[in-house]
Amino acid sequence: MEKRLWIIFGLVVGLSFLVLGYYGYEIYQKAPPIPDLVVDEKGEVVFTGKDIRNGQNAWQSMGGQEVGSIWGHGAYLAPDWTADWIHREALYILDRLAVKEAGGSYEKASEPQQAALRAQLQNSIRKNNFDSETRTLTISEERHSAIKDLSSYYKGLFMGDPDQMELRDAYSIPENAIKDPQRMRDMNAFFFWASWACVTERPGSDVTYTHNWPSDELVGNKATGDLLLWTGFSVIMLLFGTGVLVFYHAKSKEEELQAPVEDPLMRQKITPSMKAVEKYFWIVNLLILVQVAMGIITAHYGVEGNLLYGFPLADYLPYAASRTWHVQLAIYWIATAWLATGLYIGPSLTGKDPKFQKLGVNFLFIALLVIVVGSLAGQWMGIMQKLGYVNNFWLGHQGYEYVGLGRFWQCFLLVGLFIWLALMIRPLVPVFRQKTQEKHLLTMFLISCAAIALFFGAGLMWGRQTNLAIAEYWRWWVVHLWVEGFFEVFATVVAAFLFTRMGLLKIRTASVSVIFATVIFLSGGIIGTFHHLYFTGTPKAVMALGATFSALEVVPLVLIGFEAFENYRMSKVTDWLKDYKWPIYCLISVAFWNFLGAGIFGFLINPPIALYYMQGLNTTPLHGHTALFGVYGMLGIGLMLFVLRSLYRKQVWNDRLMGFAFWSINIGLMLMAVLSLLPVGLLQTVASVNEGMWYARSAEFLQQPLMDNLRWLRVIGDTVFSLGAVALFIFVFGLFRNRKKGQKISRKDKEMASAN
């Protein structure tokens, strides 16, 4: 059985990466071109390719995807700059044409005149005038005039025009976010190019480079038939995959649990390197508190602009910085909790440390601290415009969500992950030599560890001025494959290890289950990466593959209720398992959020036609919060509690405090979702369908009293959640304090005994 599953695993992974690589090559070939020159019909140079590339760096330096979004990827408070530019450009050109054709403004023209003007605009603006031989893009005189007008508008917005102060507050953009006029000119060039790709038809096609995204009737950006076709096909694949999995599950016979009389983990030896892992969890809890604080500040900027209850916090910590830290810290503490769990499990299998294992664990800890502090400081310096383009790329803010740390810190972290991989392999070598029944589980464990180290390296595949379409392709290798993919496999293996070591699962059952679950997940997960790339300048086939295979990612989640029930049943099979109540409850919570956050809220935005209208709206952070924290965060907390239960094996836990922490975190997350993120996202979707993406993200729409009230309602969920995070910190601190107290009492008893 295991051999057959390994063959299937190899085929799934191999073929999936062949497809991913082939269409990656296609993206390289068919990405929206960056012209060497942009000229008007008179031959006057508007922008150069260098201006556009430097503009990308200027955008990255101020926070990039942490201040509004480009092609729908990024933050949600400021507009999507491509949708905003396109609509403003269209209105300007229509007014210019209306003066020529109708003698007045576009708004005052009759309906037939407006229709004729729109047709004239679309014929001009959608035509691809890029010459691939000379690499020159020619634009009309009206468009050149529109660029001058828009450049002046954005300069005022980002550089401190007092007339735009109210709009800056609505977008939470600090005054003089861009301090250098040349940087501002460069960034306008980049905004123009990114918007040009959204409204210009591919050669030989009647859809734009971004598949007619964003929706805007003025420029003819409408949902295509392909969006509907592949949405329907994705639903069919979901139903098919669900049926197959339910049949397999019904056919499989559940194994009766045979729990041991005593907890086997209490008999395992705690090695020096295992004890050294304790400090990792201290940092995890500290980072959780800082991350939650940054989340509260970031959410508050949405209702009070650049202020925090009247204090001008944005002068010192702009929205771009608080959001960057909020997102980056989530990755850091979740990854640290998982890596620390791996470092604990490795030596526990043999009860021995390889030579210098403790030294390696301590060195890695220091390295991770340097990376966290250094990268966060560099990002702040970049956003505050204290670094040049090159220095910002290496030490500051790369501008990409989830992977915004500077390239130097990326390289440093990659080295750290390979050190971690070495520390994981060394304790397992003796176990492999024994050729025990655990070999299949250990093999998958090492594969997942190696993948965690290797796939973070995808973040090094783009350069400082790489075409955005290509950079997005590699960015999602990190965000989807590294974070959502192989960390998921690692977590599945670790959970199976824990249950086998506790005597709750037979090794063969765990091995088969883990390999099968990995095959099911990766069969949709690898090629499913493409569902993030529907509208980022990719070929049409990327949409077809992304829609088809991302639907399969949801399939395993339909049986999540069985997983939750099995975990709950495990917690009841014997008295000693009461000690593991909260770690197991965390796994039950993971199952719930997997179903709701990753499954329901994920599939809400996955189908092409849904994402066409929802990309870049609050439906995305709805999925992000409930999946990233609900699934990966709660799993990180659960793994931490498993390790702490073993480290503090003789302590009686404060169940009331831990219960308060657990329920407050989960209830707070739910309130955050249903009281604020979900209703705001759905109302934005209605606006996007009826008016266009530009309107759903505009200050005009988001600053309405109803929307303002819904954003304020998030305070309720944030408060409950924050109290839970504080309680968790106090709980972990209490374990450490009580252990120290116990050690002092023990030493005192020994001294008294020796004196007597």
TrEMBL record:
Domain Nitric oxide reductase subunit B cytochrome c-like, residue spans: 35-214
Record protein name field: Nitric-oxide reductase large subunit
UniProt entry keywords in alphabetical sequence: Membrane, Transmembrane, Transmembrane helix
Spans through the membrane: 5-25, 227-248, 280-303, 325-347, 359-381, 407-429, 441-462, 474-500, 512-535, 541-562, 582-605, 625-648, 660-683, 712-736
A Pfam family hit: COX1
Cited SUPFAM superfamilies: Cytochrome c oxidase subunit I-like
